[in-house]
């Protein structure tokens, strides 16, 4: 077993990426994720890797596109306003069916917003983000350990399905320090016969491309991509259940909101309210089945979010609106307290006996 | 006896370019350079958004299609991942000097060891003839129907001069393809820009002053005359930067 070290969430992402075999990182400074770039700037030259501070987020994501096209593991990281800038490139990466990791350590928005933690890029991350028919696999860590584990997982999933993946963290996750055990990667290198590495005059040229002027052909590539999305939805959903066995009410929260909610669930249990927690770890694919099943037995849901309420829409869709879903939220960089969540649970229990 | 033939670095796909368009000549010159250096199997090209968007079908080497203006960033990624491969971009004036100006300037100032073929025909061709950053003063286009008005739309950008002011780049030359003599010079420059990369000298950009008969509303012959009479006076041909040669002189 590897030894435990005390690390910031952002640094855990960076070191885990290196463990996963990523040797090329392209970024642009933005709070609260700059530690990732700083860590890479120190580490990459020592291990024969590449750290490059790009002239913009737009350039950084296109450098990623180039490297991904050549079949190398590659990543970029940013925070909300910077992720908006990357959306063009992310759409092209998805359109060209390339694996790559994009990390978003979210801050409050819209616009320049603030620099405090937020989850208000949920829609952007889970519904596509850029133009066109596509999805990202979106992973939401709730501890520094998961920042590391899910980074490695994100690279593996990207290679397996030829899709870009997003690690959707928030400022708290990025900045907090916790003991973390950095896993040794066990993933086998994936064959990438489609990559542009030079024909060596041995094969027909490979083309990395998302342009299809023939609409039938474009539709065909989209159908093919969505077939892969179906497989992802079947095979890759991840979530954590906490005290759900006998639960009459269900809190749904991810990331830092899930940690706050866990405290509230424990406190509510002490008060005799039978409440549990479902924590989506994959935000796309969303854990639809477990929520659907939960709706068979619980009397209501609470969606705890650091936004004006975005995931709540997916909860309503998953549960087919069969039970009330109430929102417990803060926005703009504020975090709900366990008391706030507890109060919301108590009100829900009172109104839905 | 040498028989005229198509360069090996071009596929058999027929070009979609308009009659009289000089993209065909420039594609050929690039392919000839790749053939002469024997680098096809090791080369990756990056196609732009613009008339040359489908260059990925025409070059026989591995190709990447870029988002509008982003080719130098993509080339940077490719080169950083594979320093021993030969990476080139092929871009027009709107792509390189308008939407992609940041990528161009920063790839140049980092002296990325890549080759850029920059086709300047003073107009947006693919979208049907809008004003480009290199459109001449007074030039009539779809989006400057009364002629490019300098007080409203600003001045044309001289890319070679601009980039030559940076310390970073290795080689900047402007050539033209409007007559045989100029085509031969263009060939030499393009070959050198690729050779520089094989010798790890750094960023080489060849600006090729070219024509667009369709969107200029001229016959191919008239368009080539316009290149000589209007374009070249505004965009003088020549070597704007050759760092290796400069260093030699200093020694």
Would you mind describing this structure in some detail?
The complex is a heterodimer of chains A (353) and B (251). Chain A is α/β, with parallel strands linked by helices and 353 residues long. Chain A folds into two domains: 4-235, Thiamin diphosphate (ThDP)-binding fold, Pyr/PP domains (Rossmann fold); 239-351, Rossmann fold (3-Layer(aba) Sandwich). Chain A is 42% helix and 20% strand. Chain A contains twelve helices and 15 strands. Chain A has helices at 9-19, 34-43, 57-69, 80-95, 122-126, 144-161, 171-175, 215-235, 255-270, 288-297, 311-318, 338-351, and strands at residues 4-8, 24-27, 50-53, 74-78, 100-106, 137-139, 164-170, 177-181, 207-208, 239-242, 249-252, 275-280, 282-284, 300-305, 325-329. In chain A, the strands form three sheets. A seven-stranded mixed beta sheet of chain A has the order 3-2-4-5-7-6-13, sandwiched between helices. Chain A has a five-stranded mixed beta sheet with strand order 10-12-11-14-15, with helices on both faces. In chain A, helix 1 packs across helix 2 (34-43) and helix 10 packs across helix 11 (311-318). The longest helix of chain A is centred in the middle third of the chain and has 21 residues, at 215-235. Chain B has a single domain, classed as Thiamin diphosphate (ThDP)-binding fold, Pyr/PP domains (Rossmann fold, 3-Layer(aba) Sandwich), CATH 3.40.50. In chain B, 41% of the residues lie in helices and 16% in strands. Chains A and B meet through helix 3, helix 4 and strand 9 of A and strand 1, strand 2, helix 3 and helix 5 of B.
